[in-house]
Design a protein that fits this description.
binds adenosine-5'-tetraphosphate; about 325 residues; Rossmann fold; Tyrosyl-Transfer RNA Synthetase; mainly alpha; 2 domains; about 5% strand; globular
């Protein structure tokens, strides 16, 4: 059975981009592969976080994994910092990663631009991400398009180490949906920027936004010139993005949406889109509420930690021995 690893960082509220670009695929994959999904809290610390927010969001992401349909009986769900091998392998891989490689990372350039104090953690975060994946010898990594470059780096690091020390790490394959299938959901107030946790909340639909907030955000979403609804990423980026959201939340094809709303104008389309998104999120929000019962998600995470650590510790030990590190007896 193939093994799948992916993670989401608790740096903000989970949004529709995270769901449509990543979590939805996690749910599908759990039926055909051995899946390991992490709340990658150490990644969130690459930019300043309020401790209370970080704590709450870490547990919330785990709850939302389950609420979105990840079944803890099928998939392993755990918090990254609960398995210390991530930080340890991160350090070791950093010794095999070149400064120039990290300097080329687009996400680093975007997130550090205009900042006075940029942490070295933000710079080396792709190395920790490589450690997350390589520890589990994952075959496949389902992510949104924005993570493509980081996955390529992971593959380069794994190949470099395997060339020197023999086959230690599995070289993972990315699993990235095309843009029209949710690989890159764009912001509602700027269709040229991706929807993101750290973007303006006006452009982002959080998975836990109440229905009236969702309706208001969709009503205020920017549109393109003209009034026809059809899919054209280049000339109609805003409407195309809204159509992708409609299609993925309802299961209806882009063609059928264009047929129905082609000439109704943007107002009718947006009103129906709000209903579709609210209906898609309603069961998730309901299940999330059930999972706020004290101790419930903590038990899932403890079981996940145990299963994840068993795999991760073994991979780390194998690599340490290959490197010549004196590994203490267990
Ligand atoms: N807009 C998006 N469309 C499709 N997929 C997306 N993902 C994120 N945004 C979109 C995918 O969600 C997974 C989790 O992302 P992450 O939290 O690890 O990192 P990120 O991509 O940097 O997340 P955000 O939400 O954009 O947060 P900020 O604004 O803090 O950077 C990944 O698979 C990602 O591809």
């Amino acid at each position: 059975m193939e093994r799948v690893f992916s993670g989401i960082k608790p740096s903000g509220e989970l949004h529709l981009g995270n769901y449509l670009g990543a979590i939805r695929n996690f749910v599908d994959l759990q039926n055909t592969a051995e899946c390991i999904f992490s709340v990658v809290d150490l990644h969130a610390l690459t930019v300043p976080q309020e401790p209370d927010d970080l704590h709450r969001r870490t547990l919330d992401i785990a709850r939302l994994y389950v609420a979105c349909g990840i079944d803890p009986a099928k998939a392993t769900i755990f918090v990254q910092s609960h398995v210390s091998a991530h930080a340890e392998l991160g350090w070791l891989l950093g010794c095999f990663t070149y400064f120039g490689e990290l300097r080329r990372m687009t996400q680093f350039k975007e997130k550090s631009e205009g900042q006075v104090n940029v942490s070295s953690g933000l710079f080396t975060y792709p190395v920790l991400m490589a450690a997350d994946i390589l520890l589990y010898n994952a075959d496949k990594v389902p992510v949104g398009e924005d993570q493509k470059q980081h996955l390529e780096l992971t593959r380069d690091i794994a190949q470099r180490i395997n060339n020197r020390f023999g086959e230690i790490f599995k070289v993972p394959e990315p699993y990235i949906p095309p843009k029209s299938a949710g690989g890159r959901i764009m912001s509602l107030d700027d269709p040229l920027r991706k929807m993101g946790k750290s973007e303006d909340p006006k452009g982002t639909i959080a998975l836990l936004d109440p229905p009236d907030v969702i309706a208001k955000k969709i009503r205020s979403a920017v549109t393109d010139s003209g009034r026809e609804v059809y899919y054209d990423e280049e000339n109609k980026p805003a409407i195309s993005n809204l159509m992708v959201i409609y299609s993925l939340c309802s299961g209806e094809s882009l063609e059928s949406i264009a047929d129905r709303y082609g000439s109704t104008g943007y107002g009718v389309f947006k009103k129906d889109l709000a209903d579709v998104v609210i209906s898609a999120l309603e069961p998730i929000q309901k299940r999330y509420q059930e999972l706020t019962e004290p101790g419930r998600i903590e038990a899932v995470l403890e079981e996940g930690r145990r299963k994840a650590a068993a795999i991760a510790d073994e991979t780390l030990r194998t690599f340490q021995e290959k490197l010549g590190i004196v590994v203490p007896k267990a």
